Amino acid sequence: MEPVYLDHAATTAVLPEVVDAMLPYLTQRAGNPSSVYAWGREARRALDDARDQIAAILGARPQELLFTSGGTEADNAAIKGVAFAARQRGAGNHIITTQIEHHAVLHTCEWLDQFGFETTYLPVDRHGRVSPSDVEAAITDQTVLISVMYANNEVGTIQPIAEIGRIARARKIAFHTDAVQAGGALDLNVGRLNVDLLSLSAHKFYGPKGVGLLYVRPGARWQPQQQGGAQERNRRGGTENTAGIAGMAAALKLAYANLEANNIHARALRDRLINGVLSGIPQSELTGHPTERLPNSASFLFKHVEGESILLSLDMKEIFASSGSACTSGALEPSHVITALGFAPEEARGSLRLTTGMENTRDQIDRVVDVLTSAIASLRAMSPAFAVV
Ligand code: PLP
Question: According to the 3-state scheme, what is the secondary structure of the chain?
Answer without folding.
Answer: CCCEECECCCCCCCCHHHHHHHHHHHCCCCCCCCCCCHHHHHHHHHHHHHHHHHHHHHCCCHHHEEEECCHHHHHHHHHHHHHHHHHHCCCCCEEEEECCCCHHHHHHHHHHHHHCCEEEEECCCCCCCCCHHHHHHHCCCCEEEEECCCECCCCCEECCHHHHHHHHHHCCCEEEEECCCCCCCCCCCHHHHCCCEEEEEHHHCCCCCCCEEEEECCCCCCCCCECCCCHHHHCECCCCCHHHHHHHHHHHHHHHHCHHHHHHHHHHHHHHHHHHHHHHCCCEEECCCCCCECCCEEEEEECCCCHHHHHHHHHHCCEECECCCCCCCCCCCCCHHHHHCCCCHHHHCCEEEEECCCCCCHHHHHHHHHHHHHHHHHHHHCCHHHHCC
